[in-house]
Design goal:
CATH topology: Jelly Rolls
Organism: SAR86 cluster bacterium
Number of helices: 1
CATH architecture: Sandwich
Helix content: under 10%
Protein name: Regulator
Structural class: mainly beta
Shape: globular
CATH superfamily: Jelly Rolls
Number of strands: 12
CATH class: Mainly Beta
InterPro entries: RmlC-like_jellyroll, RmlC_Cupin_sf
């Protein structure tokens, strides 16, 4: 057990996620790991703030997650806690219901593999308080954001 390696989130180059208004969204940052042009898959780390919630959204493509550090909390639109995924938990997901997410008592770092398999089909949709779509994000949008952050 002397050879344990700790995940060091300070070594990650965290960037803001633009919200629907173009300004950085609250309580979330990201770091691109890989953008696979051929398969149309984006691998990304997200960091959600402790005891906060990010924007309401809905996944509109397949994805998988792995909680790297902390615990990922998922909430229903009415604010009720739906799920808690501590570090080490993997989940494969499909398009689904509106929800929000955030960290537990510490910031949470989650690996997402976003799999739209298309350049233009939405990966997720940002929703307003009436669950109406205010922004959709697709593979090309994330590819361009990665290019912007890599320059």
């Amino acid at each position: 057990m002397d050879n344990l390696i700790q995940f060091d989130e300070s070594a990650i180059d965290w960037k803001p996620l633009p919200g629907p208004d173009g300004e950085p969204a609250d309580h979330i940052s990201l770091s691109f790991l890989n953008v696979d042009e051929k398969a149309k898959i984006v691998d990304i780390l997200f960091k959600f703030s402790a005891n906060e919630k990010i924007l309401m959204h809905r996944h509109t493509s397949n994805y998988s997650t792995f909680t790297v550090k902390g615990e990922l909390r998922t909430y229903l639109p009415d604010g009720a806690l739906k799920d808690i995924r501590p570090a080490g938990i993997f989940k494969a997901g499909t398009p689904g219901e509106a929800h929000t997410e955030g960290g537990g008592d510490e910031d949470v770092v989650v690996y997402f593999s976003l799999r739209p398999y298309s350049e233009t089909d939405p990966i997720y949709e940002i929703l307003d308080e009436n669950l109406e779509v205010t922004q959709a994000m697709n593979f090309n949008d994330l590819k361009e954001l990665n290019k912007e952050y890599s320059s």
